[in-house]
Amino acid sequence: MTNPVSNALRSVGDAWDGVLEGYKRQNIVVRIAVLVLIALFFYGLPILRPPLITTNEIDFGGVMFQVAAFALVAVGLNIVIGYAGLLDLGYVGFYATGAYTTGVLTSQHGSWPFFLALPVAIAVTMVTGVILGAPTLRVRGDYLAIVTLGFGEIIRICVKNIEWLGASAGIKDIPHPNTIGPKAEPPFEPGGLFEIPRVEWDGLVPHLDKDHPVHFLVFGATNAIPYYWLILTALVLVLVGDRLVKNSRVGRAWEATREDEDAAELMGVPTFKFKLMAFALGAAIGGLSGSFYASGQGGYISPDSFPLLLSMLFVAAVIVGGSGNRWGAIAGGALVAYLPERFREFADYRLLFFGLALTVLAVWRPEGLLPPRRTRRAKAAAAEIEALEEGELDDELEETRNV
Amino acid sequence: MGGLVFGAIYALVALGYTMVYGVLQLINFAHSEVFMYGTFAVAWVFILLHGTESASWSLGEAVPVLLVALIAAMALSAGVALALERFAYRPLMKKNAPKLIALISAIGASFALAEAMGLRDRFAEVFGLDDNLADYVAPGKARDVYSSPVTIREHDLFTIGGYTLSDVDLVIILAALLMMVALDQFVRRTRFGRGIRAVAQDPESAALMGVNPTRVVQLTFLIGGLMAGAAATLYMMKVGVTRQNAGFILGVKAFTAAVMGGIGNLRGALLGGLILGVMENWGSALFGQNWKDVVAFVLLVLILLVRPSGLLGESLGKARA
């Protein structure tokens, strides 16, 4: 594989690695400032609507909501796959559980407000994770993959066939989260605290577009941007939690289990307990994302919203981004959700290209876009050892030649 | 008996998964698409040889066409499998990439292959081909169901305990068993088979002993493709229609069968496939058609709980010579 194209791709990859290294060398204040700036940029993204990135065929705010939802799922799944090393192909089951719990409590059999249903949905998904994990985490590796795959499918078929859960018609009219500020009463009262105009680009020249304002924190069918902000906030909170857990004893136990389960067990790590914990935590985050999805713009879910294919995409998101690295998971999730939407102009071909892109990406950068630090260190060490060995061999050869 | 028939087809597809897994420790997710291409090859052969008018033949009348279809399906499936190996896996193997990345490569390839088939009318347009799609597929709707014009009439042969066996069923079961036995003997008896087992056990030592691992991997994909093509022909005999995503759920089932029997084990794939097919049939009779897949997966979980490495948890490499 040494042709100009792959070389060019590799140099792009190396340049990116260089940027990451540069960021690591900065001191903590600069790093936090950079993070805050990045966060602000992402909050503003659907209003800034930068050219090239903005989707033309489909509402950009809606796309950004999906992207954020996918990123949130990827962060959750990253705990299971990336940290604990459990290949879970049925993650969509948890996503569906969260969505359906919200649906049942707010619309189907109750009329709870969204923010009351949300914690219940998270708890229910967590319990589901434990229920699934307790018997199945005894099997390992690819056997676990297929068992979880089966679980995802079981959940989908169950919701499809149980009348109580709306069967194949699904659940509709799931209420939106409460609006902050005056209630929206169309056509006269747009509601919300204030209006934010969005930016429109004429080529490369930006100007304000006051015809399509965003009413601040009005959750309704008209605009997806408030949902995007909501889920982005959840993502930030989850990331903080993720960082705390990862750097704690629990996170190290996960890593030990991932690297060598038997060794970890022998060293006194109760691996089963920690694997179950990873499963439950990952599931809870999946449920959180599913819950947001259920009460999103459309407020409608059906069994067809949760195909097994979605599970594959979740796994793809985590691994494309660099399994074990939370930023990688976010990047992967965003990419996997965004690419097919961006290229909607080629509507029919977009999935074909998406598939090809996944394969090319895997072949081009096998350790993911943002591999975790441990992988990079291990790789550097391996390269060093190899170089040393080759050098020694060369020396020996020379010695024999001299003799 | 429908259970046994589908069990046999699952088992044939499962062979592709189990062999690749045995040699590479890799779930070849795109194998379901290899099968799907086979089903399309069968449909095209029927249309080329018979035209697009639908007809209903008995099994005897269909045999020559079926044989041609079998060869075409095996050839196309094997070709797709080899291309997969070349473009989606070999570059990764060379780089010693993590196993999970190969899984992503497979998922991507699976997407691309299914989509390419879903867009086949567009490609035909680009190349100026007037293929026989027009009668079956409205313009721009190539994702729709695609059927072979010849349906094969089944004749009931005999009834055992309330189960009727038709000639088509019998042929499918026998053909599948025959291929299984042939493959089993191939892996156990021939030089190539020994090479496959050697690589499955320890690729590095095998390479030192003069086995070419690249060739062995290629051969494994080739055989998997051939078996998937055969399974596709049998599937089209029984079902007669296919879709660009026909492979997905069948692939999941076949993989389930492979895992149930103990992945990496050829005889396990056969056993797993048959058990899965029969249990599914009983399950859908007991709980209704809608719960068929649930029965299959619950059964899988139960079996794995009792035997965490499948029913015959013994790998390809350890199979006795």
Automatic annotation (TrEMBL), chain A:
Coiled coil: none annotated. This is Branched-chain amino acid transport system permease protein. The lineage of its organism: Bacteria, Bacillati, Actinomycetota, Actinomycetes, Propionibacteriales. It is a multi-pass membrane protein. GO terms for molecular function: branched-chain amino acid transmembrane transporter activity. The chain crosses the membrane at residues 28-48, 60-83, 114-134, 227-245, 276-294, 306-325, 346-364. Keywords: Cell membrane, Membrane, Transmembrane, Transmembrane helix. The keyword Transcription does not apply.
Automatic annotation (TrEMBL), chain B:
GO terms for cellular component: plasma membrane. Keywords: Amino-acid transport, Cell inner membrane, Cell membrane, Membrane, Transmembrane, Transmembrane helix, Transport. It is a multi-pass membrane protein. It comes from the Bacteria. It holds the Pfam family BPD_transp_2. The chain crosses the membrane at residues 6-27, 34-51, 63-88, 170-187, 216-237, 257-279, 291-310. One of its GO terms (molecular function) is L-isoleucine transmembrane transporter activity. It is found in: Cell membrane. InterPro entries: ABC_transp_permease (IPR001851), BCAA_transport_permease (IPR052157). One of its GO terms (biological process) is D-alanine transmembrane transport. Belongs to the binding-protein-dependent transport system permease family. LivHM subfamily. This is Branched-chain amino acid ABC transporter permease. It comes from Nocardioides aromaticivorans. The lineage of its organism: Bacteria, Bacillati, Actinomycetota, Actinomycetes, Propionibacteriales.
